[in-house]
TrEMBL record:
It catalyses: ATP-dependent breakage, passage and rejoining of double-stranded DNA. Its EC number is 5.6.2.2. Transmembrane segments: none annotated. Homodimer. GO terms for biological process: DNA topological change. Control of topological states of DNA by transient breakage and subsequent rejoining of DNA strands. Topoisomerase II makes double-strand breaks. Pfam families: DNA_gyraseB, DNA_gyraseB_C, Toprim. Gene3D superfamilies: 3.30.230.10, 3.40.50.670. GO terms for molecular function: ATP binding; DNA binding; DNA topoisomerase type II (double strand cut, ATP-hydrolyzing) activity; metal ion binding. This is DNA topoisomerase 2. Residues 221-336 form the Toprim domain.
Length: 440
C-alpha cells in the first residue's frame, strides 16, 4: 500500500507460490529431515501483528551440524541478520526449553540448553515486511528496527509452542539432537582447552614448517597454503620474503564435514593451519586483528587432487571461521597449465587455460614446444613466482560467500557422509568437467 507521503504505493513481491517453504526445502535438498513424525518436515508460520508481516519456514536436518538462517526485510536480503533474526533465535531458545521442561524431557534442575545447540541442524528462511525498515551497517545488510525483535519473538514463539505441544515426537527429536550437540561440545571443549593451553603457552610458537614473512603488518602480508614439500620448497624459494609467507601441508587435509571437533583439533595439519593463520578457537567470535595475514591464498596443483584439497581447505575455513571467507580474505591461486616456447632460446609464454594456449600458438606461429605442468613442483622457483605468486603477474580469484548456500550444498554433497547425492553430483558434472576450470 501507500506509505503515507503521497508517494505512489510501493509493492514488493517476495516469493512465488510455495514461497519460503519451497526455499527451505531447496536448502535442505541433500539432507535428511529430523522431524519424521508427520509427512511435513517443515514448520511454517505466517502472521501479521502490530503492522509487521512475518513469514517463516524452518526445518531441522538430522545430518547437519550448524544452523543456516536466510533472512529478508521487505524483500531485501539481510545477510547480517538484525532484530528480526534476533527475535527468531530468542523464540527458539525460550520455547524449546520451556516445552522440553513441561514435557518432562528436561528437569527443572538441568540448565537451559543454549540456543546454539537447539539450532543445530536448523535451516530457516525468515521474511518480514514492515512500514519503515531501518538498515544498519556499512553495507546496510542488517535490519535495525528495535520493535521487530519482540514481535517476531512473540509470533514465532506462540506458533512453535503450539506445534511442539501437538507433536511430542518432533519436540523429542529436536531436544535429543540438541542434547547430543551439547555433549559433543563438552568433549570438543576439552580438546579445545588443550589447544588453548598450547596456544596460550606457545602463542609465539608457529608451526615449524611455516616460512614466515618479514612484515609484521597483517594487511600487507599474505600466506600461500601449498600441498607437499616439493611445491613448498619451490614456493619458499620463489616468494617475496618481505610480504609472502608459505605453509606447506602434508597429506590430505581432514574432511571437516565428516569429522567432529575433537578429531579436528587433534589433526596436525589443521593445528598448523589454525596457528599459522591466527584463526583462534572455533565459535569464539572473529576479530580481524587476530588474523595474521589479510590474504590467505590456496595454491594447489591444477589437477583433480589439487581441486579436492582446495575443496577441503575451503570447507574447513568456511565451517571453522566463516567470517574469514565472508570478509574476502581467502583467495585461490591459478597456476598456469602450459608453457609455450619458440626455439630453444625463445621467451616463455604461459597459458592458464586451453583457450589461451590455442591463442598463444596462433600468435607464435610455427610449431612451439609445449610443456603441460602437472604440478607446482615441476616449475622452477622463479617460474612459479612469476606465474603464480608475483602480485604483478599472477591470476587470483577471491572466494566470496555470496553463494554461501550453494557452496554449502556443494560441500555437503561432495564431502558429507551421504553417498547417493555425491554420486549423482559427480555423474552429472563429470561430462561438463574441464579440469583447468575447477573452481569451487
Amino acid at each position: 500500500g501507500g506509505n503515507g507521503d503521497g508517494d505512489a504505493p510501493r509493492t514488493q513481491v517476495c516469493c512465488h507460490l510455495g514461497g519460503l517453504e519451497e526455499y527451505v526445502a531447496l536448502i535442505c535438498k541433500e539432507k535428511t529431515p529430523l522431524l519424521q513424525d508427520t509427512d511435513q518436515p517443515s514448520i511454517v508460520v505466517r502472521e501479521e501483528r502490530k503492522g509487521v508481516v512475518i513469514d517463516v519456514a524452518m526445518r531441522w536436518s538430522a545430518d547437519q551440524y550448524n544452523d543456516q538462517i536466510v533472512s529478508f526485510a521487505n524483500g531485501v536480503h539481510t545477510p547480517n541478520g538484525g532484530t528480526h533474526v534476533d527475535g527468531f533465535k530468542a523464540a527458539i531458545t525460550r520455547v524449546l526449553n520451556a516445552e522440553a521442561r513441561s514435557a518432562g524431557k528436561r528437569t527443572e534442575k538441568q540448565a537451559s540448553l543454549p540456543g546454539d545447540f537447539l539450532r543445530e541442524g536448523l535451516s530457516a528462511v525468515l521474511s518480514v515486511q514492515l512500514r519503515e525498515p531501518e538498515f544498519e551497517g556499512q553495507t546496510k545488510s542488517r535490519l535495525g528496527n528495535p520493535e521487530v525483535r519482540a514481535i517476531v519473538s512473540e509470533v514465532v514463539g506462540e506458533a512453535l509452542a503450539r506445534q511442539m505441544q501437538l507433536r511430542p515426537k518432533a519436540l523429542a527429536a529436536i531436544i535429543d539432537k540438541a542434547t547430543s550437540a551439547a555433549k559433543a561440545a563438552e568433549a570438543a571443549k576439552a580438546a579445545r582447552d588443550l589447544v588453548r593451553r598450547k596456544t596460550v603457552l606457545g602463542s609465539t610458537v608457529l608451526p615449524g614448517k611455516l616460512a614466515e614473512c618479514a612484515s609484521k603488518r597483517a594487511d600487507d602480508a599474505e600466506i600461500f597454503i601449498v600441498e607437499g614439500d616439493s611445491a613448498g620448497g619451490s614456493a619458499k624459494q620463489g616468494r617475496q620474503r618481505q610480504t609472502q609467507a608459505v605453509l606447506p601441508l602434508r597429506g590430505k587435509v581432514l574432511n571437516v564435514e565428516k569429522a567432529d571437533d575433537a578429531s579436528m583439533y587433534a589433526n596436525t595439519e589443521i593445528q598448523a593451519l589454525i596457528t599459522a593463520l591466527g584463526l583462534g578457537i572455533k565459535g569464539d567470535g572473529f576479530e580481524e586483528s587476530q588474523l595474521r595475514y589479510h590474504r590467505i591464498i590456496i595454491m594447489t596443483d591444477a589437477d583433480v587432487d589439487g581441486a579436492h584439497i582446495r575443496t577441503l581447505l575451503l570447507t574447513f575455513l568456511y565451517r571453522y571461521k566463516r567470517e574469514v571467507v565472508e570478509g574476502g580474505y581467502v583467495y585461490i591461486a591459478f597456476p598456469p597449465l602450459y608453457k609455450l616456447k619458440r626455439g630453444a632460446n625463445g621467451k616463455a609464454n604461459y597459458a592458464y587455460s586451453d583457450a589461451e594456449r590455442d591463442e598463444i600458438i596462433a600468435q607464435l606461429g610455427g610449431k612451439p614446444t609445449i610443456q603441460r605442468f602437472k604440478g607446482l613442483g615441476e616449475m622452477m622457483p622463479a617460474e612459479l613466482a612469476a606465474t603464480t605468486m608475483d602480485p604483478a603477474t599472477r591470476l587470483l580469484k577471491q572466494v566470496t560467500c555470496e553463494d554461501a548456500v550453494a557452496a554449502d550444498r556443494v560441500f555437503s554433497t561432495l564431502m558429507g557422509s551421504n553417498i547417493a547425492p555425491r554420486k549423482q553430483f559427480i555423474t552429472e558434472h563429470a561430462k561438463t568437467l574441464d579440469l583447468s576450470k575447477i573452481d569451487l
